[in-house]
Amino acid sequence: MSHIVRTTGLTKRYNRTLAVAGLDLDIAEGEIFGLVGPNGAGKTTILRILATLLVPSAGDAEIAGASVRRNPNAVRQVIGYMPDSFGVYDDMKVWEYLDFFGRCHGLPAARRRRVVADLLELVDLAPKRDAYVQTLSRGMQQRLCLAHALVHDPQVLLLDEPASGLDPRARVELRELLRELRNLGKTILISSHILPELEELCTSIAIIDRGRVLVSGRVADIERRLRVGAVLRVRVLGDGEAAEAARAWFERDAEVAAASLLDDGTIEIGFRGDDAGSARLLAEAISAGLRVITFARAASDLEELFLQVTAVDEPDAVKDGTAVARKGAAA
Ligand code: ADP
What we know:
Layout: E1 3-14, E2 17-28, E3 32-36, H1 43-50, E4 58-63, E5 66-67, H2 72-78, E6 79-82, H3 94-104, H4 109-122, H5 138-149, E7 156-159, H6 168-183, E8 187-192, H7 195-201, E9 204-209, E10 212-218, H8 219-228, E11 230-236, H9 240-251, E12 256-261, E13 267-271, H10 275-287, E14 292-299, H11 302-310
Parallel strand pairs: 3-8, 3-9, 6-7, 7-8
Antiparallel strand pairs: 1-2, 1-4, 4-5, 9-10, 11-13, 11-14, 12-13
Helix pairs in contact: 3-4
Bound molecules: adenosine-5'-diphosphate (ADP).
């Protein structure tokens, strides 16, 4: 399988914050690949590095064989990037907006006219050709932004939370548009902090938290694997300090995706292993001196795992069972 996007040990540090922590990702051509994780997981940073807007602190990323470090100009030719916020463009009509970016990409006038017309058709904004950009609905602005990312006919689209702030109907329209783009041969990398939004649309996903990949792969494969995996609930004898020490111990295990300490002292573990794996984990925990009182295993699906691994600091942040926002609201 040919990989059109590949990151190797990709790392980004902002002063003391490790935003991306040695990320290895392989994305095959023609995929709709979802990056999913709570706010602050590192999604925007990853996409900005791939878009050559940020330089990695270590590691590298290649798009269509070009390195973001050594050959950013070649990368820019093959990617279309849509940031998570739409800039303000006063007094600019829809067609002028796209025409402007066509100029930026050096498209000659005749070609620009054709491209603008085709893109407006594609994103269903042809009737809004002469409307002012600021009069468009949020969903329309989002589609216009997507058209902007497509002006130079890139192979790879990098979309940062494109569905955020859209009403349900606009979400459905966006999803259909992305499927259409995939049928046109584009590879799409899309981020969201809402798993169900991506689960349905994407061919593959990576669940990320604190700049690391917790699980990744084809959606169906992950779901199958997670049916084998589980959430383990463990309690140990002693005070909060003992529980935290036990949590930290569990988190170091290679088969543990994440371990969090709940208010009632329960350690909740996102576990990748099978039954034999949890038997091994329990035996090792006891050998290591942890005074385990209970060690229970609950079956889990993708959503449950996502909630387990992401809603660590503020369990209350999970309101409707779908949105996970650890640090305030989404942009
Ligand atoms: P996400 O897109 O998943 O919400 P980000 O990539 O925006 O995550 O942020 C990842 C981490 O890096 C967060 O802890 C965030 O606070 C931090 N961060 C992002 N941008 C900056 C910056 N310019 N300076 C310092 N820290 C930053």
